[in-house]
Amino acid sequence: MSPSSLTVKATAATTPTQPGSWPLVTIAEEPADALSSWRRLVTGTDPSARPGARTLVGQWLDPGCIYALPVGGVVVTCDRYSGQWHLTMCTVTDDGLTTVKEWRQKSPMGARAASYIARRLPDTAADMRAVAVQAKSRTNLYDGRCYHCRRWVDAGAGRLIDSGGRKEPAHLSGQCPPPPQVVTPNRRGEPCQLCGNWVERGTGVALRQSEPDPATGSYYRAAHQTEPGACPLGALPGPRNRVNGWCSLCGELVAAGGGYWDPTAHRSLRHAGDCPAPKWSGPTWQVRRARHEPAFKIGQVRRVRVDLRRGGDPVPPQTLGYRVLSETYIELIGLVVEVVEIGRRQWARLCPATASEAADMVADDTVAALDARPDAGAVMAGWSVEKIGHQNPWLAEITGRHPDYEYRREFLLSKRDYTNANSRGTRGVQFHWDLLPNRVYEAAWSVSHRETRREFLKTTPDGDVETISREEVEAWLNHAATWAAS
Ligand SMILES: [Zn+2]
Ligand SMILES: [Zn+2]
Ligand SMILES: [Zn+2]
To answer: Of 73, 138, 311, 451, which sits 20 to 30 A from 89 (CA to CA)?
Structure first.
């Protein structure tokens, strides 16, 4: 139809009602050979702007996008080709967009076209707005999984949709295929829907359910096969263990792959099939490696500490190296018979060492006891350290063992000297303690803003303070009671 044959009067505009009742309008795509384009709902004019398109104000519209527009609204489009400008003025009617006038000219929009449009704006134009109903969709140029149904969309067969700023391929609207009843293989390890035993990830199928799982939201559940009779007979009730560990039922070692994690009991390992007969007739103990200790190896003779709060066999007092550190914390010399790694943590199972196995360690103990013997000093010694940074230095007397903190510590109050301190107290504050002879202490302090030091300390007969090794602290704690008694 020829635009000139139309005489749409601007007064045809009605008062804008609710967007829900407005006509839906698809904004023209940019022509493929156009150098640039714009589309706009014109809502007014700016007389102060340079004559031409700039005097028109209003909301930009996206090509290809569907909008709800109020009847009477004026939409102007402009496409620039090389040396040519195509302008169109349309109005919104109940049937969509109706072209009012077209211009094909060798220059951009000038004052004449702009004022033609401005004169035909409805009275209500200033209140008008466009409501995007459906974003423009482009053909997907690459294949991928559908944003909606996660099934494959071939390049060019679907569209691109905007998902939070990212373009994702999707099937055309309403063209997602119905979901498959069976997906092969299963993407998740879980109990089989048919037999209840475990299906490892990727080894079975996934069957579609009528309702999503309330916990996971998934419509699929794994199964060994699609047919109920086809489930393997030897399937385990839980996922196979990839690393070794101890059976939660019998306490014996389960080699990697020789058992399963019981899905009904959180992180408890079970033997596959029947539990074996106990491997060790006497008591055994499981201990965790402390951070400063070397790794456990099978066949090692080790002095270890058993935390009886975790259960386990009682420790007979005749066990070599037997020493009560606290009521539920016993030291002993044992032979490492099994080692288990859980993440970065290492655990060992030990049986009591024989006299010949423990001989060297018992001898070392005697030497250490002699070395650590009190030096009969009787002089109190002062020890000071300057506070650096925000962390206060601390000093504690070590009075025994603790299963959680390694040592029982009695933190001592410091005397503080602010004479040379800065105003914020972050530098120059001197912390001072008096150390008694024949005791062992531990102290921690910052040597710079990044580095802290932690040392064991004791006094010397001359009234100085020296750092001592962990072994000396151990020997001290092991024998202090006997010295006190003698
Ligand atoms: Zn789809
Ligand atoms: Zn099954
Ligand atoms: Zn077992």
So the answer is: 138
Q: Do 391 and 365 sit in the same domain of this protein?
A: no
Q: Using an 8 Å Cβ cutoff, are 85 and 103 in contact?
A: yes
308 Cα to the center of ligand 3, angstroms:
21
Q: How far is the CA of 270 from the centre of ligand 3 (A)?
A: 5
Q: Please name which of 383, 388, 403 lies closest in space to residue 457, comparing C-alpha atoms.
A: 383
* Dist. CA 394–CA 431, nearest whole Å: 9
Mean pLDDT of the chain: 86
Question: What are the tens digits of pLDDT across the range 239-272?
Answer: 999 999 999 999 899 999 999 999 888 879 999 9
- Which two structure tokens, joined as six digits, stand for 431? 């912390």
Gap from CA of 188 to ligand 2 centroid (Å): 14
Q: How many CA atoms lie within 13 A of 427 on its CB side?
A: 3
Ligand nearest to the CA of 153: 1
Q: Does residue 243 sit within a domain?
A: no
Task: Identify the domain containing residue 386 by its residue range.
Answer: 381-485
The Cα–Cα gap between 142 and 155 comes to: 4
Answer whether residue 460 is part of any domain.
yes
How many helices (H) and strands (E) the chain has is answered by: 3, 34
- How many angstroms separate the alpha carbon of residue 357 from the centre of ligand 3? 29
Q: Give domain status of residue 365, yes or no.
A: yes
Q: Give the number of whichever ligand sits closest to the CA of residue 159.
A: 1
